[in-house]
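Key idea: predict the complex, not the pieces.
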Amino acid sequence: MTGVERDRLARVALGRLAEPGDPRFAGLVAEMGAVELVDSLIGQRDLGGVLVDIEGRVDAVGPERELERAARAGIRFVIPSDEEWPRQLDDLAATEPLQNRCGVPFGLWVKGPLRLDELAHSVAVVGSRSATSYGADVAADLAAVVARAGHPVVSGAAFGIDQAAHRGALAVGGRTVAVLACGVDRAYPMAHKTLLDHLGAEGAVVSEVPMGCSPTRLRFLARNRLIAALTRGTVVVEAAVRSGALNTANWAGRLNRVLLGVPGPVTSAPSQGVHQLIRNGAATLVTSGAEVLELVGGAGDHLVEEPRARTRPRDRLSLRDQQVLDAVPVAHGARADSIARTAGLGLLEVRSALTRLQRAGLVEAGEAGWRLAALAHT
Amino acid sequence: MTGVERDRLARVALGRLAEPGDPRFAGLVAEMGAVELVDSLIGQRDLGGVLVDIEGRVDAVGPERELERAARAGIRFVIPSDEEWPRQLDDLAATEPLQNRCGVPFGLWVKGPLRLDELAHSVAVVGSRSATSYGADVAADLAAVVARAGHPVVSGAAFGIDQAAHRGALAVGGRTVAVLACGVDRAYPMAHKTLLDHLGAEGAVVSEVPMGCSPTRLRFLARNRLIAALTRGTVVVEAAVRSGALNTANWAGRLNRVLLGVPGPVTSAPSQGVHQLIRNGAATLVTSGAEVLELVGGAGDHLVEEPRARTRPRDRLSLRDQQVLDAVPVAHGARADSIARTAGLGLLEVRSALTRLQRAGLVEAGEAGWRLAALAHT
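Result:
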């Protein structure tokens, strides 16, 4: 057996021995390597007090069988020495725990044709499970634009924003990946089984948790760090003040990823968490997929023109005529000599300008004198 | 006649000779004083080429008559040497022109009992004339909170956000001031005559433009600098990408005033300009009157607690019980020994914790084992 395959088996075993993102195990793997760590643990050597936690788990360890079973289900286990390994995950090695989760995963279970090294330019779109239709629509549109530009969209396959993000990317034939808090062979939430099957067939479903495992709060917290670490940037679309999406956002910030937030009505509870992120300077406000691309794309890849108002009739006037137009009263009327005084121009000049402006439909002459026409307001 | 009264008459005269915010006149007043400038101009001395512009205006100059007429209408003319003068306007002396308007006004025509030196802690609430009902409601609520805390609300009496801001302040018996682009004796827009009468009776209506003058585009641009300069901070509630409110915002930034923006749906055109201001870092995102007070109030005057989620049932648990709860599957069921492994705790300990959690309604026991109850999700 090659060293790589021994390493792979040890990492599969670690997935059964440890909870994902357990800071102690992450440290031990970095220190002594997966193979030696597993040998020590199975040999009952207590390292940093973890033995008590794995008691009762050791009987679940059977990595060869587990890999065979996975292969039959079309599931692979990708480890750091594989070419497919997403290098950006290694940034997790240097992080401090957040809610007691941290570290590089031992490996990733993957179901689907998309290779994980395609995620180098991916974008996470995450948010509230109890999204509004506004939030879901914005997430779907934004994910479609990002995916169409060639950036895979990563999310968590949850209700609400996650689902809308995957759906938006799929709608344009884009790449999209779900990172789960349970085994990739399970459907959580159950209502998203079709979506997950679809992602497993066209994109990828990813988890560091072994097959068959249920989602728990701890595993969601661990999963969130993977979404942040796998992607170049995280877009939070709607997130109440206490929301898993804010945990993902927090990880994105710690990992120096781009963190973006989509605002919404201040009266909408699901936008409150996003507004806090923007207000505190943690996230940059974005309003469109194009703005997301500008901020997460390679430098200069996607330059967005700021929305500008369309050209108005007054923009086509000579500067002199604009000056006269600016001096015409908005309401009531004024005589040409009064307008000339206001504009600081000669009377003859002003008279000929007013005639031109009248032909252009910008001013109108009434009994009380010249006044702006409706067109000049637009 | 005292020097102050000669200065006042000269400044009234200047209001007739010059357009508001004309950079040349502002410079000349600063250099030679109002009295000498008016004497020179009436004596036909050309200074910086302004003589051609005042030709035809000189016959309108009659400052004594003008002050008498104003006094009869309950209108006063406040100049920099008056005790009532709002000192913060002097910041305009150091500014470069924006759209060719700048400078300290010669004086301010005021109708209403509110003294201008009460505006040191005032807040401007401005925005789109074509506001949405969302924007108008937010502006009114925000103005009410600001006014109730004792900060006068300044705006422009226009349709939309301006009107809502004045209305919000009036509704709580707060102080509010309209700064106009026309004479304070005129009602623009006409539909706001009642509002303006009300403001003139309870707060103040202010303008640097002489009585009887109509609003023009130039005068709106000049007026916007006054709104920004008079106040401690400007809140932009809704503003399309081309909007007078953004001109006011620009002035607030140049004058180092606090600039705040209220976000809205990214699909709403009237919020686009505000989102740009926040995205570019020009404005800070705010979502409530309390947040406005925190940022424009005196240091520490108004400290806002960030919105937090209410306490959840899990927050009242011991750390040990939380650890067990975190390890209980979200869906499906798990046996106590599996939960013990996930939590990294002993089986007996986990069993007694599960019983406590069940009594608290946080977990439920089914055929397949323990799972989270609905309450634990909240």
